[in-house]
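Re: [ENG-882] Designed sequences occasionally contain unexpected residues at chain ends

Forwarding the minimal case from QA. Structure tokens:
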């Protein structure tokens, strides 16, 4: 334990700070149980306090039951439902759903709403209570096509099924969602010839100026799937986004299993081909040969020999490849990539007196999401403890996770109510201290 964390654990009187108003009237006994159990398992008061707050944050403050029996899970300070964010916001609840009917309904209802949204418009990345992608007053659109948004509902549903054994999630809505997703993936394999979607049409004038964008980047056919935007919501520099393609490959593997088990579908051949094309395309186009350091994964490519060597804190990231299931932690190319992106050779790696880690061109500074993922994908006890120390020492006295923060002055941060990051911290604590034992030992 670091000196700072030890001192905090001994001296802090935790302030009564809440992030978001409690809007969900439902009660979860499983959340109460895991919070109680964590008090005896997490050996540090600071970490326990952060866990106590973050594990319930999505459920209490961002989850609304809707009239159609789905759940609208908004991202926190932005009252819209991001497909990626909402999937990961409920991630911990997958593992509690076996023990709590309320959380089980939340998981199933969130997945159903995501799939219904993608049936209406597969190019959504976020939407409102009425499923609309209407523009907000600031002109910011919610129809930025991000490849990973097509993947997360399937990825989450597969994990839920495998953990709980519940098969009812694979209903008619899910089947229609699969059809919409697979069709879109096929179209975006040959974006230039088949797609009518334009990233430029979904950028505000301010975004165009900020990113210096006046025309769409050219690509050639590679078998890879085109993405207009990154998980940060920023436009791609080159539109074959390797972390999202890696997630797509894993998701399509899951989908093969789902379709074979639950649906008599002619889509199977298409799913297998998509997965095979993406897998081969990443190996052919997504790996950069560094003459000094060896092969590493690029962040983005265009299939014409151009590479963007960086990483972004938002998931899926290159850092997250083992966690999403694409490769092992000890994979040689991943280890070389990890060494690169966790250094100043990555243009979005930030270091200061208090913290160091990966950030994003979307917001400057270290991101809590990247520190959490660095711990989740590390094989080093020392590195894991170092990341946990950084997380404990950079909440600026709020005991919640944030978006970006100044690594020299963590009190300078963005987004005090960022439920996705809160979920991922709670997930790290669940993994680190085996908190699911409170149910599995019953």
């Amino acid at each position: 334990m670091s000196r700072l964390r030890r001192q905090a654990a001994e001296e802090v009187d935790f302030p009564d700070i809440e992030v978001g108003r409690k809007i969900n009237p439902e009660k979860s006994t499983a959340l109460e149980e895991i919070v109680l159990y964590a008090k005896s398992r997490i050996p540090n008061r600071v970490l326990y306090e952060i866990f106590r707050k973050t594990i319930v944050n999505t459920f209490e403050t961002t989850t609304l039951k809707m009239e159609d029996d789905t759940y609208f899970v908004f991202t926190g300070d932005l009252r819209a439902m991001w497909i990626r964010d909402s999937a990961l916001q409920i991630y911990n609840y997958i593992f509690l759903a076996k023990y709590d009917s309320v959380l089980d309904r939340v998981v199933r209802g969130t997945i159903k709403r995501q799939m219904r949204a993608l049936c209406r418009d597969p190019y959504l990345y976020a939407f409102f209570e009425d499923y609309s992608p209407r523009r907000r007053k600031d002109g910011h659109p919610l129809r930025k096509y991000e490849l990973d948004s097509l993947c997360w509902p399937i990825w989450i549903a597969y994990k839920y099924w495998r953990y709980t054994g519940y098969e009812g999630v694979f209903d008619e809505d899910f089947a229609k969602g699969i059809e919409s997703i697979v069709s879109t993936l096929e179209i975006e394999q040959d974006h230039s010839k088949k797609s009518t979607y334009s990233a430029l049409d979904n950028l505000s004038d301010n975004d165009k100026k900020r990113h210096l964008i006046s025309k769409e980047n050219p690509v050639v056919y590679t078998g890879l799937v085109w993405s207009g935007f990154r998980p940060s919501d920023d436009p791609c520099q080159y539109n074959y986004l390797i972390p999202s393609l890696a997630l797509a490959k894993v998701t399509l593997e899951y989908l093969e299993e789902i379709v074979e088990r639950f649906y008599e579908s002619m889509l199977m051949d298409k799913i297998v081909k998509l997965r095979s094309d993406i897998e081969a395309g990443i190996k052919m186009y997504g790996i950069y040969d560094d003459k000094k350091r060896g092969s590493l994964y690029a962040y983005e490519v265009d299939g014409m020999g151009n590479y963007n060597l960086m990483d972004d804190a938002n998931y899926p990231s290159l850092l997250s490849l083992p966690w999403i299931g694409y490769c092992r932690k000890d994979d040689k190319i991943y280890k070389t990539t990890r060494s690169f992106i966790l250094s100043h050779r990555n243009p979005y790696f930030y270091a200061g007196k208090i913290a160091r880690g990966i950030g994003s061109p979307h917001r400057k500074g270290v991101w809590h999401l990247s520190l959490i993922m660095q711990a989740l994908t590390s094989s080093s006890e020392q590195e894991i403890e170092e990341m946990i120390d950084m997380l404990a020492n950079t909440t600026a006295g709020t005991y919640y996770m944030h978006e970006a923060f100044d690594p020299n002055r963590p009190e300078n941060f963005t987004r005090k109510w960022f439920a996705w990051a809160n979920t991922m911290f709670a997930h790290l604590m669940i993994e680190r201290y085996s908190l699911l034992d409170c149910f599995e030992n019953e």
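QA comment: On inspection the terminal residues look reasonable. Residues 1-7+23-61+348-442 form one domain. Proposing we downgrade this to a documentation issue.
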